[in-house]
Design goal:
162 residues; mainly beta; Immunoglobulin-like; 5-stranded mixed beta sheet; disordered N terminus
Length: 162
């Protein structure tokens, strides 16, 4: 069910991060319940008005993508929190594709562009009845522009629409 019709065949997902909190959790307690830390400190919002809030399991979140369309991922700091000295950057998107099968996108992995966003071109020959596909958003949190966390991941899903 869509919140509104998407006539452009393009989709977007904005990842908002509580960077200072996530940085401290990861660097002080490396890899102890890392998924929970990431879920607690990230929220997702797509162009159709759907998303997941801080603390929600991001694996349960699904974005609609459209055959032959584009998907744009971006990341930002939470503007409602003091995040001075911290930053967030996307690294790449990785589709979880079984050997011999096609993914939703024309390339894999999908690398970050010069403007800090990631643009994926959706294949034109994907079965609209195919099940939702898992993928991984890879990103890092920076402190003072120099020291960064290890690569962190969010594992939501995509669903193809015509």
């Amino acid at each position: 069910m869509n919140a509104k019709a998407n006539n452009s065949k393009n989709s977007s997902l904005v990842i908002t991060v509580l960077a200072s909190k996530l940085y401290k959790l990861v660097m002080d307690n490396p890899f102890i319940d890392l998924k929970k830390y990431i879920d607690d400190c990230t929220k997702l919002l797509d162009n159709e008005g759907f998303g997941s809030q801080y603390g929600a399991n991001n694996e349960n979140y699904t974005t609609n993508v459209y055959e032959s369309g584009e998907m744009i991922w971006s990341i930002k700091l939470d503007p409602d929190h003091d995040e001075r000295g911290y930053g967030v950057v996307l690294d790449f998107i990785n589709q979880e594709i079984k050997r011999g099968e096609k993914g939703y996108f024309t390339e894999n992995p999908i690398k970050v562009g010069d403007n800090g966003t990631i643009l994926g071109k959706v294949s034109s020959d994907i079965d609209p009845n195919s099940p939702p596909e898992s993928y991984t958003i890879n990103f890092q949190v920076l402190k003072n522009g120099l020291k960064s966390t290890p690569v962190l991941t969010i594992d939501p899903r995509l669903k193809i629409n015509q």
